[in-house]
Every structure is written in C-alpha cells, then in structure tokens.
C-alpha cells in the first residue's frame, strides 16, 4: 500500500477505499493536467470525481456482464457534475418542430428549405462510413465554456459536402456563426445555444469564412461578447439551401446518409453515461427524447455481439479526439435513441 500523498485533502479518517480512489484521482489529475486554484476547488473536484467514478464503474459492470454494449471511462469531464458541464454538453436552443425553426428575422429572404421524404432514394447497404470515402473533416473541440455544438455540427455537415463533392477540405468558422448569427437577428443565441436551420439561412445569405481567418475563441457568453468580425471578401463557404429530413424513420435516414451525405442532428446528450462514453454502441434506456446536444451522422454499421445483431450510427462529436472513439461515438439504430431522429438537417451547396 502506498502512503497517502494527497496533501491538499485534509480528511480526518482515511479508509482503504478512499485511499484507492484518492490515488485514482491523483493519477487522473496528472493525466489530464488538471490544476485547481485552492483547497476548496480541489476538494470539490475530488468529490465530483468520486461521484462520477461510481456511475462509470456501475455502467462498466453492466458492460462486463453483457448487459450494455458500450464502455465508459474517466475523461476530461470527470471533475464536474452534470449541471456544471452543461456548457459543453448543451447547445440546441428552442428546437421544437418544423417551421418554428425558421422563426426569427434574417438579413434577407429565407433560403430554400426542402423536406426529404421516404421514397426519395433507393435502399441503403448495411454498412457505410463516409470517413473511408473522403467525406469527413477532422474532429473539432468546442471546449468547456461555449454551447456552440449547433455551429460545429452544422458546419461539419457543410464541410462534408465540400469534401465529398469537390475534394476540398475546409474548416469553416464556428466563431463567425456564434458572433454574427445572433438572437436579435436569427433566433440564435451564440454560446447559449442555437440551431442549424438559422445558421444555414445566415450562411446562404452571407457566406462563411474559414476558421483560419476567423478563429474559435471558446468564450463564456456575455452580452457584449459577440462583436461580428465577418469580412465578406474572406468568405469561402456558401450554400444554396438545405434539407430537413422527415423525422422518425431510421431506415430512411440511412438512405439519406448513404446517397446524400453526413446529416447534422440534435439529441439528448446530457446523460452522464454519454459524457463518459469511451467506446462501443451507446444504448441507454434512460436516454429519452430531449434535444440538448448536436453531432453529425457520418455513417452506419452492423455488428454481431454474442449472436445478437446490432445496427448502429457512426457519429462525429465536437469534444476533441480525446473523447470517445477518437472523437466519435456509435449510437444504437432503430430505437430513436436519445431522440436522434427528431431534428435532422443537411446543407445543399450546388
Ligand atoms: C499534459 O501535459 C503534457 C506536457 O505538457 C502533454 O504532453 C500532454 O499531452 C498533456 N495531456 C493532456 C491530456 O492535455
Ligand atoms: C421509412 O423509410 C423507408 C425507406 O425509405 C420506407 O420504405 C418506409 O415506407 C418508411 N416508413 C414510413 C412509416 O414512412
Ligand atoms: C482543420 O482543422 C484541423 C484541426 O482542428 C487541422 O488538423 C487541419 O489541418 C485543418 N485543415 C485545414 C485544411 O485547415
Ligand atoms: C477584408 O479582407 C480582405 C482580404 O483579406 C482585406 O484585404 C481587407 O483589408 C479586409 N477588410 C477589413 C475591414 O478587415
């Protein structure tokens, strides 16, 4: 047994169980280069860490017993509780249904929105992955403070269209959308959340710069944070309209992903099991419909686990490559998991 080297935590009695978890905490803290301002912050982080580790261990026990198909792990979020993490996790604002997404004023007339319905395409194969077909740009990192997932997801789909159709790899500017596509104008709230439909409408009217010329700042939202620095002579990206995909049909969604390309979607991304997802196929019966986060469906696949056939979606997240499967996650298909079929959207560039 190692001696307790946890000087900052002053605990009157140290139990063996605590000792192990303290060592786990120190190890984790070093691995993720976490520093805390003072003793209180360290103790709070440690308390949260213990709480989160219990959830992860319980989930992984299910995984070992074969009752779950995804593995969880400690990660960079493990010193925070759910409500503190919400900036990174949350980000789809005022998503209801259909036309209300189009509400809000804009600089010009709305660009063309087309609803894709079943019957549009032939049937899709069992397996498809746009990463293997030159259709996906690198995973980005929205950071901890800005609920800008709607911008990352929406631009991810636009980047995919440029890459798969023209072989061009662009990283478009999330910050431009956050600063310039604001609530007074479009119904979007910058780092307090937004939606892809009004983002596409904004891009269709104004164009979008590269992240290289208009970099991401990961700011805390505050009233005067958003000063728009868009320079139209630097705009590189454009779009001519966008598609909304008829909700609730995952067979059809496969066809859209295969024949059209990656699809931006909103889902419930607020569960701890999702925050600590490390690998496998995410399938949590507690993950009910409730749109809070956004990501990008880039493909789908099928596995046989102990005789059980499981179809899944391959999704690109915006929490950097140190989260999940190199920044990606798989989500079970056929259950409308976490409400994933409710808000589906893809840009049109020609
Ligand atoms: C922690 O810092 C070291 C040294 O600066 C670096 O090599 C490593 O990648 C960092 N780890 C994380 C998770 O940021
Ligand atoms: C779902 O989509 C599939 C494939 O396009 C189609 O055959 C089927 O009729 C659709 N189901 C409903 C209920 O619309
Ligand atoms: C896009 O951004 C990623 C990192 O976020 C970087 O690795 C890549 O080189 C960038 N691509 C271009 C074309 O700028
Ligand atoms: C806009 O971008 C162009 C091209 O990079 C540059 O020449 C011009 O100075 C910029 N305008 C402003 C106001 O920054």
Please explain how this structure is put together.
The protein is of the alpha+beta class and 350 residues long. It has helices spanning 16-31, 39-64, 86-89, 149-166, 174-180, 183-186, 196-206, 250-259, 272-275, and strands at 70-72, 112-116, 128-129, 241-245, 263-267, 277-282, 293-305, 308-316, 328-332, 343-348. The chain contains nine helices and ten strands. A hairpin with a 2-residue loop joins strand 7 and strand 8. Helix 4 crosses helix 7. The chain is globular and about 60 Å long. Residues 1-5 and 94-107 have low confidence and may be disordered. It binds 2-acetamido-2-deoxy-beta-D-glucopyranose (4 copies). One 2-acetamido-2-deoxy-beta-D-glucopyranose binds at residues 231, 233-234. One of its GO terms (biological process) is proteolysis.
Keywords:
single chain; 350 residues; alpha+beta; Cathepsin B, Chain A; 10-stranded mixed beta sheet; 10 strands; 17% strand; globular; disordered N terminus; binds 2-acetamido-2-deoxy-beta-D-glucopyranose; Peptidase_C1A; Peptidase_C1A_C; signal
**Order of helix and strand elements from N to C terminus:** HHEHEEHHHHEHEHEEEEE
Instruction: Describe the main β-sheet briefly.
Output: 10 strands, mixed
Number of helices, where a helix is a run of at least 4 consecutive DSSP H or I residues: 9
The global form is globular
CATH class group of the largest domain: Alpha Beta
């Amino acid at each position: 047994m190692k001696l307790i080297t946890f000087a900052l935590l002053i605990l009157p009695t140290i139990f063996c169980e605590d000792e192990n978890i303290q060592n786990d905490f120190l190890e984790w803290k070093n691995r993720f280069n976490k520093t805390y301002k003072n003793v209180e912050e360290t103790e709070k982080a440690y308390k949260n860490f213990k709480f989160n580790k219990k959830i992860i261990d319980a989930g992984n026990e299910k995984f070992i017993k074969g009752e779950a198909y995804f593995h969880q792990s400690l990660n960079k979020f493990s010193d925070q509780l759910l409500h503190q993490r919400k900036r990174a996790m949350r980000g789809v604002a005022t998503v209801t249904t259909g036309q209300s997404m189009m509400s809000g004023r804009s600089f010009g007339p709305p660009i063309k929105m087309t609803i894709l319905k079943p019957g549009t395409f032939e049937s899709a194969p069992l397996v498809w992955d746009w990463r293997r077909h030159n259709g996906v740009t690198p995973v980005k990192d929205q950071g901890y403070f800005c609920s800008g997932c709607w911008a990352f997801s929406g631009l991810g789909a636009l980047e995919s269209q440029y890459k798969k159709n023209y072989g061009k790899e662009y990283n478009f500017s999330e910050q431009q959308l956050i600063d310039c596509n604001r609530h007074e104008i479009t119904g979007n709230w910058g780092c307090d959340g937004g939606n892809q439909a009004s983002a596409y409408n904004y891009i269709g009217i104004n164009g979008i710069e590269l992240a290289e010329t208009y970099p991401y700042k990961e700011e805390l939202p505050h009233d005067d944070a958003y000063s728009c620095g868009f320079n139209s002579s630097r705009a590189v990206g454009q779009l001519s309209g966008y598609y909304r995909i008829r909700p609730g049909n995952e067979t059809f969604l496969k066809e859209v992903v295969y024949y059209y390309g990656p699809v931006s979607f909103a889902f419930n991304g607020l569960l701890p099991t999702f925050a600590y997802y490390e690998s496998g196929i995410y399938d949590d019966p507690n993950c009910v419909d409730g749109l809070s986060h956004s990501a990008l469906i880039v493909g789908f696949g099928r596995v046989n686990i102990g005789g059980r056939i499981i179809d899944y979606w391959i999704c690109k997240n915006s929490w950097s490559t140190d989260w999940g499967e190199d920044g990606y996650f798989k989500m079970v298909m056929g259950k409308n998991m976490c409400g994933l079929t409710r808000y589906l959207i893809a840009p049109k560039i020609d």
